[in-house]
């Protein structure tokens, strides 16, 4: 009996300490939430069809050319996100198209996107819920913070996707003029369209990696037996860049009417250079208007203070020394 009391004495002392009680409660709450997340993950993994999961793994491995396929976190985020994928074909195809424009072409990219969205919606609010007892905030403020975190977790993947698409389209647009010049040189040297694009893809790997990857994929499709026209249309759909869309349209018209591809590429390269020059001149013309607001609100007040400050102080001092009856 004395041994049991000796073992229980430290626990009794800890129970009398409010801080220790709060820490123990937070630890138990964290373990409970962690166990709940593990249980939910196991339920989702168990409910999903193992055969379909194995097929997705093999498709991802074949698409990426690696044996591992998806990463470890993607193996359980994909089935979780599959439950959130929209049932409407239009919404699902729109998300898939946006992911392709962002450079995410794996078969499970849509499921992984919604899995990451679910993870960001659930995990940060749960972590905040664990720390709320120590923050000592009102209940309504805590609920508002949890709702804001959940909404931010829902919107953050979409903002990331939009930013990635804009950045990738900008990189592809910047590399297109150099690629056109190289294509003109290769075409005039006697290479066909497919061979010229493969050569340009090798030359652009250092300076413009994103465009080189797209052109390299075009070469793989043509070598696999796809027609040049179908491969060009797929290139246009993958990138979503207006300049590449215009190039593909020009090349398809050249193939249709039998004109020289080298001459077509040269004319389009000149047109693209003129377009870039006009865009640069337009941006330069907007500089004076854009600089107006910083000049008025930032530079002009300091300039007025420096130039008119001493005379105003002198006038104030002069009036302060002047008698009122005068």
Polypeptide structure, described:
The protein has 326 residues and is mainly alpha-helical. The protein is 84% helix and 0% strand. It contains 13 helices and no strands. The chain has helices at residues 2-15, 18-47, 50-64, 72-82, 89-101, 109-135, 139-188, 193-203, 209-223, 228-239, 242-257, 261-290, 292-321. Helix 6 (109-135) runs antiparallel to helix 7 (139-188). The termini are far apart. Residues 180-308 form the Type II secretion system protein GspF domain. Keywords: Cell membrane, Membrane, Transmembrane, Transmembrane helix.
Helix content: over 70%
The low-pLDDT segments are 62-70
Overall pLDDT metric: 78
How many helical stretches?
13
Structural class: mainly alpha
What are the secondary-structure elements, in order, as H or E?
HHHHHHHHHHHHH
> What form results from the Cα inertia axes?
flat
Number of strands: 0
Write down the Rg.
32 Å
Report the end-to-end length measured between terminal Cα atoms.
Answer: 103 Å
Q: What oligomeric state do these chains adopt?
A: single chain
Please state roughly what percent of the residues sit in beta strands, choosing from under 5%, 5-15%, 15-25%, 25-35%, 35-45% or over 45%: under 5%
